[in-house]
Amino acid sequence: MASSSCSLRSILFSSPTNLRSNYSLPTSFSRNHLTCSVSSTASRFESFSVSSIGTGSSRRLFNTRRKVLEVRSMATTEQKQRVETYNQEENLAVDLAKFTADLSDKFCKERGAFTVVVSGGSLIKSLRKLVEPPFVDSIDWARWHFFWVDERVVPKDHEDSNYKLAYDGFLSKVSIPPGNVYAINDSLSAEAAADDYETCLKHLVKTNILRTSETTGFPKFDVMLLGMGPDGHVASLFPGHGLCNENKKWVVSITDSPKPPPERITFTFPVINSSAHIALVVCGSGKADAVQAALKKTGNVPPAGSVSAEEELVWFLDIPAASKL
Length: 325
Ligand SMILES: O=C(O)[C@H](O)[C@@H](O)[C@H](O)[C@H](O)COP(=O)(O)O
What we know:
alpha/beta, Rossmann fold, globular, binds 6-phosphogluconic acid, hydrolase
């Protein structure tokens, strides 16, 4: 029963190999972003750097730097949190690819497997650099195991399907073994699909593909790459929804999602927050209020403000999304 769900849901896709090497980062990449590393456990500022050429952008970056530093001083959770701000989405995408490729390298070498969870939405577009040289050629795709933090309960070829989004923009371009791609069973109801996905995860824990957090007892994914909605939701955990408080189940269903379509399944916070590493990727001025509330813990803190990771949480922001920090 448990093993059936994993293998039956494997999806076939092709993987062009397009070898190239000797890539170096565009010069603008290293000059036009700023970093604020936070170790709130030690309550200590660890590293920070800004460099940008040009008066207007320098001033903007300086202001953002000051504001990011304020965020750092307000951090209270016991986790390592870093806020990266980019003045070009292109540079954000390169850095996100590097972040993911470095983790892939580390986990593939250390444990022979890399468990990666993605959201839907614009995140998939932000991952586009991973399927280009040099990353696409250097990553050990055969060791990847690919999951969704949430999925809409629609057929896999439906325009709303997060599987389809990831397949078209990512999976169809890399050579992850089809058996390592864990899509939901779209022939089930939302509730049954959530139970089925949880059963699948339990099977993967038993077979040591998925680790277990020693702290929480929940599954510990190597990395989650997540987007955030303008209301501050992550996965399908929406502001004020009771599912945000679920503390036993790993995967739950929702049939009244305020963001269409209404029927979805989603990982719960205990699973999300047991991850080793999390990237929260947020772009656009429409999300600035939610970024502010989540990071500064002001007003009604949205679900994104409850995200934490066991090793490191990194916020990848463009300047408009960081504009209220
Ligand atoms: O299935 C979903 O709806 C997503 O997983 C959801 O959590 C998404 O990541 C955010 O809504 C951000 O989406 P955008 O980046 O497109 O705004």
